[in-house]
Amino acid sequence: MDLWIPMTLAAAFCQNGRSALQKQLKQTLSTWGATASRFVYAAPLAVGLLAVLIIGRGTPLPAPPAAFFAYTIIGGISQVLATGLLIHLFSRANFAAATAFTKTEPVQAALVGIILLGDTLTLPALLAIIASILGIILISLSRADGHKWTPDGSLWIGLLSGACFAVSSVSLRGASLSLGEVGLLLSTTTTLAFVTIIQSVMLLGWLGLREPGQVAKLFGAWRQAGWVGLIGFLGSMAWVMAFTLKDAASVKAVGQVEILFTLIASHVVFRERITARELAGILLVASGVIGIVLLGG
Description:
Blueprint: H1 4-25, H2 31-40, H3 43-56, H4 66-89, H5 95-100, H6 105-117, H7 123-142, H8 153-178, H9 184-210, H10 212-220, H11 222-245, H12 248-254, H13 258-268, H14 276-296
C-alpha cells in the first residue's frame, strides 16, 4: 500500500476528532475564536518541529522559490475563506444539505490541479471520485433534520466553499512540491510552518479588530484549545504529506471516509439508527474510496 493512503486515513481521523473538539470549544469561544484555535496553536508546533529538523538534525532549511510563497499565501487564505463560508452555512436551516455541496471539493480539486500543476486523472478515477461525492450528498440529505431543501443561496455558498478548499489543497501540494527533493518530512513541515503562521496572523488580526475580547479568551482556553491545535497539527501534517505524494483530488476523495467515522460513532456510541438512504450513501462512499485506492494505490 502506498504511503499516501494511510496518511489520508490518519488525516481524516484527526480531522474528525479536531472538529468534535472545536464544537466543544464553541461553548467558550466565538465561531471565529474556535476556528482560530486550530491554526494559532498548531503554528508553534509546526515551527518547533521545523527547528528540530534544522538544528537538531543539522538539516539545512530549504531555499523556497518564489512559487512556494505564492502557493502558501493562496493556500492559507483560501483555507480560511473556505472555513468561514462553511461556518456561515451552519447558520442556515438547510445547512446539512447545502454542506454536502462543499464535498464536491475532489472534483474541483481535480480541475484546479490540472490547471495549476498539470496533474492528471484517469476516467475510472474520476468516476470513483464522483461516486464518493454522490454518497456524501445522500448521507447529508438524509440528515437534513426534516427540512425540505430547494436550491438557493446555500447551494452557491457550499460550492464556493468547496472551491476554496480545493484551491487550498492544490496550493499546499504545489508549495510542498516546489521545494524539490528535500525529503517528505522536511518539505511537509516547512510548508505547514509557513501556512499556519500566515493563517494565525490573519485570524489574530481579524479577531483583534472585530472581536477584541476573543484573543484573550483564546489564549485563556489553552487547555482545550491546545488539544485542538495538537490534533489539527497532526492531521495537517498527514494531509500535506498525502498531497505531496498524490494529487489532491484522489487524496480528498479517500478523505471522504471521515463521514463514515462520524456515522459509525453515531450508531455505536449514540445508538442512532442508520437510514436506508444513509446506507446507500455509505456504500457509494466506500465504493468510491476503494476504487481510488485500487486505481491510485
